[in-house]
Every structure is written in C-alpha cells, then in structure tokens.
Specification:
globular
Length: 95
C-alpha cells in the first residue's frame, strides 16, 4: 500500500493495543485494540478516539479531515498484528 499513514505508532508488548495521533483540524489520539473473543482464535478489532487516559469511544465522530490516512494506518496496524499472530482471525462489528 502506497498511501500516507501515521507512523507515530505506540503499542503494548503483545501488540494488543495501538495508539497514534491523528493530525487534521486538531490532534486526536486514536486507539486500535485487538480484543480476544470467546470463540477460539477470533479477535474483535475495536477502534476509536481516546477519552481520558484509558477509555476510548468507538461512537464519537471526530471528523478530523484525515479519514483516509487514519484508515490506512488501521490497515497497517492489522498487517503488523497479523505478521506477529498469523493464525488468528479478526473481525469488526458496529454495535
């Protein structure tokens, strides 16, 4: 993929949680989390805006003007995660 993405990724040791800063109309910390499901090696891909220090919202619409760059960064994060854990399945759902 040759689209611009955010390179300022911070992650936990097990790569289950990533953070990066979206820079558009303002600076917003984005969170991408891989959450273990109750079914085998299936993980939920959760993402949103950081609110406070440890909570993130997946319903908030930030409209920061950089959606393509944010989504490209999320795809990049998925690639990083699946390189580390190639046998897992990832899904994402809207509540």
């Amino acid at each position: 993929m040759h689209l611009p993405f955010y390179e300022n990724l911070k992650t936990t040791d097990d790569y289950s949680l990533f953070r990066f800063t979206s820079v558009g109309n303002e600076e917003i910390i984005k969170v991408v989390e891989f959450q273990k499901n109750t079914i085998g090696d299936v993980y939920n891909l959760a993402m949103g805006d950081l609110i406070g220090e440890k909570i993130f919202s997946d319903t908030q619409i930030s409209n920061n003007g950089d959606i393509k760059k944010v989504l490209t960064t999320v795809v990049n994060i998925i690639q990083i995660y699946t390189r580390k854990y190639p046998a897992i399945y990832i899904y994402s759902r809207k509540y």
